[in-house]
């Protein structure tokens, strides 16, 4: 046999063993995640409800929300939407201040977070959330106009809501709004494969079950060390049963082409940013402000990603001044 023939046989053997290796690897990738136990922590919704908590089923999704009736009859309504991993807890300082100034205030937990329903198969895109939340507001207060306020991921949600119903939107406030250019990722398609989704549940669950990890993430967002109360406010809702079920759908459906639509949002918009935000940098806020036809960019000096929690006096004053200005 010639040397060239021997080399061909060797190459074929290598390809054969490499193919077998890939088959075994794929089998392990597909089987192992179902052998890994997803640990659950015994935290019930009943333990975490607030005195002003209410629940409403909209489009077969149970939403948790809280109401603060205005102390004066301003006739103005404010709707607060939290960011990723958060809940109505994020607005614990802002809502009472706005109530004292006469606004009717509603804060909601997005599906999968806080005390709202958790289940697989939900669309977590900003557009789908917007439609769901408008249906909720119409059920509660038909025909009312709203000042929409969203933090981080919630900033994308309220932007979608403003685009969907500008006639019912008095203003939009993006607090460190997480609105990025729409760039579909091949990884989102991979999550349609059930074992890949199971891996996503395993890894995301390990993060939220680790209280020290949650504390570390919160410190990064705050730009300072959180208190025990602040850590618990985030950690406990993330440990309600079935939270892990949402993560594959969240990763797969969250992106929305909102950046390309900002020039259509002609209502007043406040972009309020922590000057030292490391999660959604100020440069992104400046770009969003540039694209909007009727916006104002306001900074909270020396603060990070969550100024409504770390500098509530300054944040709430800037927000209230904007809302009372028209």
Salient structural properties:
326 residues; alpha/beta; Rossmann fold; 8-stranded mixed sheet
Number of continuous helical runs:
13
Spatial order of the strands in the main sheet?
A: 1-2-4-3-5-6-7-8
Strand content: 15-25%
Q: Please state the structural category.
A: alpha/beta
Q: Write the element-wise H/E pattern from the N-terminal end onward.
A: HHEEEHEHEHEHHHHHEHEHH
Q: Going by CATH, what is the homologous superfamily?
A: Alpha/Beta hydrolase fold, catalytic domain
Largest sheet, strands/sense/barrel: 8 strands, mixed
Uncertain ranges: none
**What is the CATH architecture descriptor?**
3-Layer(aba) Sandwich
Shape: globular
Task: Could you tell me the CATH topology label.
Answer: Rossmann fold
Number of strands: 8
Question: How far do the termini sit from each other?
Answer: 90 Å
Overall helicity: 40-55%
> Can you give the mean pLDDT?
87
How many domains comprise the coordinates?
Answer: 1
CATH class: Alpha Beta
How would you summarize the topology of this molecule?
Blueprint: H1 3-31, H2 45-48, E1 53-58, E2 61-68, E3 77-81, H3 94-100, E4 104-108, H4 126-140, E5 146-151, H5 153-164, E6 169-175, H6 186-190, H7 194-209, H8 211-222, H9 228-235, H10 247-253, E7 269-274, H11 282-291, E8 295-300, H12 307-310, H13 312-323
Parallel strand pairs: 3-4, 3-5, 5-6, 6-7, 7-8
Antiparallel strand pairs: 1-2, 2-4
Helix pairs in contact: 4-5
Q: How would you characterize this protein structure?
A:
- The structure is a single chain.
- α3 (94-100) links the parallel β3 and β4 (104-108).
- 43% of the residues lie in helices and 15% in strands.
- 39% of the residues are buried.
- The chain is α/β, with parallel strands linked by helices and 326 residues long.
- The longest helix has 29 residues, at 3-31.
- The protein has a single domain (45-323), classed as Alpha/Beta hydrolase fold, catalytic domain (Rossmann fold), CATH 3.40.50.1820.
- It has an eight-stranded mixed beta sheet, sandwiched between helices.
